[in-house]
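Side project, low priority. Logging it here so it doesn't get lost.
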Amino acid sequence: MNTHLTDALALAAAGLPVLPLRKGKVPFANCPACLYTSCGGRPHMKTPGPCTCPKPCHGWAAATTDPSVIQSGIWRRVWAQAGAVAYHPGGAGLTVVDLDHADAITWARRELPNTLTVPTTRGEHWIYLGAMQSANGVRPGVDIKSTMSYARWLGPGTGTMTKLPDVVRALIVKEPATVRPTPQAVTVPVPVGGGECRHRTPAYLNRGIAMAEQRITEAPSAVHATVYRTFLAVLSAHGRCGCLTDTHIARLFTAAQAKGESARHCTDAWTNARTRLGM
């Protein structure tokens, strides 16, 4: 039996929802039927699991503990190509503090309670009992992987898992490395429309951008979906007449990245929204 498949079945039996990773240590891409969530499935919902597609689509949302799915014919073929096994920490009620280098580890040893520790290629995973919102770049070299995220399985680790402390929960409400973008950093091309502008005053557009920022900022969950739908709404209302500028788009990207979205995810969501609207 494939080693990755064997590990996945053992982890699933222990209650960890698992998924395969490609050799580049990223999830397998959505199949053509599910591309851009056209399947109407569950890639951005809090409950993990595939949509009606039996393939391991949708990244973290494909994670499962069902052995019949894990060792089905389609999944077996994917495990044969896999480079690693991953799991959905939030789906198991866990949070992984991903420490990417020595300075981050030094900070964790000074500031965080001891817990189960797993060595990684460049640093360590500190695993706590309890789930929370995931976020990248909460401090230099520190990511939070829990709900709507995945972590690579690197072994059982050492130490005893402890309860998720408030100091870790507080990391995502601070304002450090999460917000990095500036208007000059946005490279998404501004939609150029040839239609007549229906905005009577600039205030209409500015109010729409402010409402979009607020919608993203206040999203309690499903951040990926919220960002995409907000971009879609903004483009639908303002994208065809050419009034949007790179400054407006930068404001939207900044709000999204403040919620933990990467620049690549922002660009993908913007491109997908334009494609959906035929722009």
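Brief comment: Residues 202-217 form the longest helix (16 residues).
Revisit when time allows.
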